[in-house]
Sequence to fold (411 residues):
Amino acid sequence: MTKLLVLGGRFAGLTAAYTAKRLLGDKIDVTLINNTPYAAFRPGMPHVSIGVFKAEDLLVDLGTALPAKGIKFKQGTVTKIDAKKNRVEYDDPSGHKQTEDYDYLVVGFGAKLGIEHIKGWHEYGNSVCEPDYATALHEKLEKFQGGNIAIGSGIFYQGTLTPRGTYPKNWAAPADSACEGPVFEMSLMIPAYLKKRGILDKTHITIFSPGEEILTDISKESRGVVKSLYSSQGFDMVWNFKLAEVRKDEIVSEDGKTIKADIAIILPPYEHNDAVTNSTPDLFDDGGFIPTDAHMRSIKYDNIYACGDANQMTVPKLGYLAVQTSRIAMQDLANRLGVPTKIDEYHPEVVCIADNPLEGFAIAVNDTTFYGGTKGLAVPSPTNHMKKELFTKYFMWTNGDMALDKYLASW
Fold:
């Protein structure tokens, strides 16, 4: 039986594993390796930080969910991909080194939060990108009595997209930040949270970005609306701020600029997964991401697919693009293994919902201008808040099986 090995248990890895098993059934032996025993619904972590959810409410138990669909699960941290020998090395939870061979491989473990690039992170850094970070931020916000809050993102260590995959040039471009969606969402949630606690008038908020301005992956018109919103609320805005250090009451850029911050809420720098350093070098580009063709096949190793954040072309690093790339990759694999399957075309779009659950509305973004398109929508409404709630319930109910995502994304 053909063996498919999937690395990573987030949107990309889960979609690949579930889709492969659904399309190929007994023709495929699917094993998924993830560094934690759970898959967290990361779009819900900002909600954890303001007390709407507890982190444990948004965790899928992979040891139960995957075997229920005929998929094997192994917990471990991948340390090496040997593309020439069709082998992956990983450390199991007890620290022992293990190996797993494959016929086909899906690299879906995505990027790494490069917190080591920020001096003072462990003492003063805060984020909503992981369950433990979001929980710790909630505890800190509950004790906050007013002062200065800074919200922004770290640098995206993307490389120069060299060598480039065999896909249309407009599908990928350099970006200052890997994804500023969480920054935008927190800029909606935090004022509502502070207002609920009666300390909004005691707090000054600054929004910062490493780019020329925030949200450069959406249209200029939509960015203008966002900046007008920030101005109306009295926020300071600081652009070209490349974060280097977090201190007790301020953050510092690479060129020595400072922003007052009793609490700094940061999307940490993004960079390649640690395993890249030990893996077959020509599998990756100069930033540590995998160049592929339009069906997500590595341009160097025909039996390796890269999906989600691990793929060079997925810019910004979005869950929507992760699901789309994984679905296409497994449709391609099904055809290669003798199961005729329609392969969807990849259409990169910035699709996300920035929620404000405490005030019952959300801003839905659907934008193609980063890729040369003309669509640039950013629509606030109570209905969009309901969509975010339903999406959360859908993910948890299906244990992360995003089979209907291509229908729901435009919904």
